C-alpha cells in the first residue's frame, strides 16, 4: 500500500506531548464548540508526531521571487502540457461531466491539477495530522491559522471523510490532487459519484467536481475571458498596476487611462492591470473576474497566469486532436 510504504520510510521523530497545557486547552475547546469526544481526541493527539523538518521548512527565508519569464518556464513545459493532454483523454468522461455540471471549462480543472501536483504525481509525503499539530502548537507565527485548519481536519475525521492516522499531504497540510487545505476540503469538496466519501486522491469524479465547485463558488463564469495582454498608450497608465490582486478598476477606466486591450466585455465590468517582468521588459495584462477566481486558489498573479496559459495550451492540443 502506498500510504503504508510512505509512513514506513519516514524518519523517527518524537511524539507530540499530549499533556501540554495548550493541547489540553485545545481538546476542551473542541469538546465545548463542536462536541468532539475528549477521550477520542486525546488518544489521537497522543499519536501525533512532532516534525522538526516542517518547522525548518516553513521558517526558511523565502526563495528569490522569480520574474514572470522564469516562473512561466516552470509550468509551461512540453512535458507538463503533454501529460495534461494525456490526463484529459484518460479521464474524459468524468472530467467533462464535472465541467458541464459546474460550468467550469475542463482545461482549467486539468491545469490546476497540473500546476498543483503534476496530475497527481506529487501529493505530499507528510501525515497531515503531524503537519497540522506541529504547526498549530510549535510554530507561533501562524499558530492561529494552523490550529483552525487542525480543527477542520479533526472534524473531517469525525465525519468519516478521512483516516486521520494515514492521510498524507504537504508539509503545510494540503491534501490530494487539488491540494485542498482542511477548510477548503470541508467547504468545497464534493461527492460526485455518490459513494458517501469525498476522495481527493483516487476518485477522479470527486477530484474534478471539487475543483470545479471551488471555482464556481469563487465566481467563475463559464465562457468568459480571464485575462488578455495589454498595451499602454500613456505612460501614467503604468501607475494603475499596483501589484495588488484585486479588481480595482472598470474596463472603461483602464481604457480612458491609456490601457489598450482586446475585450468585448462591457465597460462597467471590473478589471485589474498587472505589470509582470518579461524577458525583454514589462508585460502588461488585464485580468477579469475569472482571473480573480484563479487567484482565490493561490494569491499569486504569476501562479494564476501560469494556470491560465497551461489551460490554453492543453485545450489547443486537445482541440487539434479532435476528429
Q: State the helicity in percent bands.
A: 40-55%
- Can you name the CATH architecture of the domain at 2-60 and 122-199? Orthogonal Bundle
CATH top level of the domain at 2-60 and 122-199 is Mainly Alpha
Q: How would you spell out the order of helices and strands?
A: HHHHHHHHEHHEHHEEHEEEHH
Number of strands: 7
Report how far apart the termini are.
Answer: 40 Å
Order of strands across the biggest sheet? Answer: 4-6-7-3-5
Going by CATH, the homologous superfamily of the domain at 2-60 and 122-199 would be Bacterial muramidase
Q: What's the SSE blueprint?
A:
Elements: H1 2-8, H2 21-34, H3 38-45, H4 52-59, H5 68-75, H6 78-90, H7 92-102, H8 106-117, E1 126-127, H9 128-138, H10 143-158, E2 168-169, H11 182-188, H12 204-217, E3 227-232, E4 249-250, H13 251-257, E5 259-261, E6 270-278, E7 281-287, H14 289-295, H15 301-321
Antiparallel strand pairs: 1-2, 3-5, 3-7, 4-6, 6-7
Helix pairs in contact: 2-3, 5-15, 6-8, 6-15, 7-12, 8-15, 9-10, 10-11, 14-15
Structure description:
The protein is of the alpha+beta class and 323 residues long. It has a domain at 2-60 and 122-199: Bacterial muramidase (Helicase, Ruva Protein, domain 3). It contains 15 helices and seven strands. It has helices at residues 2-8, 21-34, 38-45, 52-59, 68-75, 78-90, 92-102, 106-117, 128-138, 143-158, 182-188, 204-217, 251-257, 289-295, 301-321, and strands at residues 126-127, 168-169, 227-232, 249-250, 259-261, 270-278, 281-287. The strands form two sheets. It has a five-stranded antiparallel β-sheet with strand order 4-6-7-3-5. Strands 1-2 form a two-stranded antiparallel sheet. β6 and β7 (281-287) form a beta hairpin. α6 packs across α8, α9 (128-138) packs antiparallel against α10 (143-158) and α14 packs across α15.
